[in-house]
Amino acid sequence: MAEAPSRVPPADIDVAILTKELEVAFAEQLIKCTKTLQLDMVAEREAATATTLEYLLAQVDLKLLHFKQELLNHVHKELQQTPLPFRNGHPTSFKESTMGNDVDESNIRSASLVSNPSELEELAQEHPRLPPKEGECVHPIDAVIEEAATPRINAAAYILQFTRVHAPEKGLHDCHSGESFPYETLVDVVACLAHNLRTLHGFHAVDIVWLPMDSNSPLRTFLVMLAVWTLGGSIVWSSVHPPLVTWVCVDSTFDRTSLTRSSLSTHIPDGTLHVLHVDAPLEQSHSDVLYTDLLVTPATTPSTVHPLKAPHWVLPSKVAMTLHLSNANNQDEPSVEFSYSHGDLLAAMETSIGVFRSRFQRAQSSFMSTLPLAAPESLTFVLLPSIFYGTPLHFLTPSHVADLPKALRLAKPAVLVATGLHLSELVKANDAMTCLEEVVCIGMSVPSLPRTLRALHTLSSKWRPDLKFRRLYASPATAGVCIESPPMAFPIPPTQLRALGRAVSNDVQVCVRSLSTGATLGPKQVGELCVCRLDLHHLTQQFPTNAMAYVDVDGQVHGIGSKDGIVNLGCESTTTLELEEVLASHPLVEDAVVSAAAMTAYIKLAPAAATYVDDALRSVSIFAAKQIPPAKQLSQIMRVLDIPRQLDGQPSCPIGLYETNPAY
C-alpha cells in the first residue's frame, strides 16, 4: 500500500518570503498597466491635438480667404474710382484728387486673424476640443457647430470642410447603381465638377439649374448640387419648366419633348438651355453635357476652383435652393414656391442634428434613405448631418423602393428613413430587417399606415423584437423636420397611430388654427396645422399645411387628415382619413382617397388584382359595406390608376381624372 505524501509543517514555510514575492509580482504588473495606460493617454491626446490643429488651420484659411476677398473688392473699387490721368501715367493728379477724401482705414481690413492676431490664441485656449488635462474625454466634432453657427460661406464649403477627418470606409452609396464615394474624396470630386463646369461650359454665379422632382440618380445629382453652390449658382426643384433657368440636370428617364424651342423661348431670352445628363442618356444633342465628362481631371491646367480654398463669392443670405410645388394635372391651382438661402439650410441642419445627435454619433450607425432628393428634409435631415458626422448613407430612390429587401441585405443599415407611402415595402423584407434598429417615418398619416404598422409588429416580433419606430413631420416652410416624437416599441398604441410629436426646438412654432376665425386653438380642438420657423427669412407668419390636426393635453400633435376631410353626417361627424383607413385595410387596396362632398371613394388596387378588376371592386364594396357604419356609408367606389401625393403624403391632384370602372 502506497504511503500518503508527507505534508510540510506550517513552521517550515517562510511567510515573509512569500509576501515579498507577491509584492514584487504585483509591482511588476502595476508598472506594466501604468505604462500601457500612459501610452494610450498620450496617443489620445496627440490625436485630439492633431484634430484641433486641423480645425484651427481650417479656420485660419477661411479667415485669410475672407480678408483676401475683401481686399480685392476694395482694390477693384478704388480702381473704378481712379481718374483717367492716373491711368494715363499721371499719378500726381490722382494724389491731388484723393487728398481731400478721408479714407477710413478700418473699412479696408476686415476683422480677421490677420488684423487681430490675438484671436488665434483665444480660439486655441477657449476651444473645448482640446483637453486641458490628461485623461479628459473629448468629442472633436461636437463643438464645431457652436463655433461656426453662422459661417460666411456657402453650404457646400461649410459641410465639405468636415470630410477630411472621416474614415476612408465611410461615404455615400447609391443602392440602385452601386456607385459610392468616400467622404474623404468628396472635396476633390466637387472641385473637379465645379472646375469643368466653369472653364469648359461657362457656368456663372448667376446661373440657375433646374432639377426635375423625380431623380433616379440621387448621388450624382447631389454632387452636382454641391458644385453649383461652390460656383455661386442656385437650383430649382420643379415638375414643370420654371422661368429664368439656364441649366437643366436630367437623367435617362427625363422626357426631352418638354424642352422644345417654343417653350424655351418663353423662359430664356436667347432660347438656349444647357442640358446636363447625370447618367447615360437615351437621346442626346451635340451640345449636351455628360456627367462623366465633368469628372475628367484636367491634365494640363490645374483646377482653378476648390470648395475650401477658392474665394467664396456666396453670402449666406443668397438663395441656394427653390422648391416649386405645382399641380401638373390642374393648371388653375396656384403654385407655391419656397426659397432657402445657404444660412436657412445650415440652420435647418443644426436643428436636425439636435434631434438625432446621439444616433449620428454612434460609431457603427449607418442610414438608408428612401426620401426623394427634392424634399428639403432629405437634404437637411439626412444628407448634410451624415456628412457632418461621417455617418455612412445609402440612397434608395422612391422609384426603386421595390428593391428595399435586397438593399437592406447588402447595406445593412441601422436606421431606415422613409415616408408613410413607402414604409409598406419594409413588410416584404422578412429576415433582411434584422440589421435595423430604428425605423423613421416622415410625413402625415396615409391610409395604409395602420395596416403597415400591424404587419411590422408581426414581422419584428420574429426577426427584430427590439425594433423602434419614430414619427417625424417635415414642412417646406421650415426647410426640414419641425415635429418629432420619441422612439416607440412595437406594438404601437392606437392612440399614437397618428401622433406626430412636438416641436423640435424653440425656433420652430407649431400650432392648430381655427378655419373660421384664424385664432390659435387649445388642446383637443380640431383645426388646421400651421408651422413657422422664426429664423427662416425672419418671418413670424404661420404657414398653413392644409392638414387637420389637434393637440392633446400632453402637447403632442395628432394629424387627422386633409383640410377638406371633415364630414358632417347629421348628428355625427367623421374624417375622410378614417374611411380611407378602412378601405386601405382590404388586402387588395393599395391606396384610397375619399371625397367629402359626394362621399365618393377613389381606390388604387394592388398589382395582384390587375387580372380580376371587377371581382376585386366587388369584394372591396362588400368589405366597405360591412366595416363602415350605416350612417357613414359611401355613395360609390371608383378605381383609379394612381393617387399622386405631395411630399408630406397628402393627395395633390384631382383624383377624378383617373376614374375607371365604377363599383356600386
TrEMBL record:
One example GO MF annotation: CoA-ligase activity
Residue ranges, annotated region (Disordered): 83-102
InterPro entries membership: ANL_N_sf
Polar residues compositional bias, start-end: 90-100
Cleavable signal peptide: none
Identification of the protein by name: AMP-dependent synthetase/ligase domain-containing protein
Species the sequence originates in: Aphanomyces astaci (Crayfish plague agent)
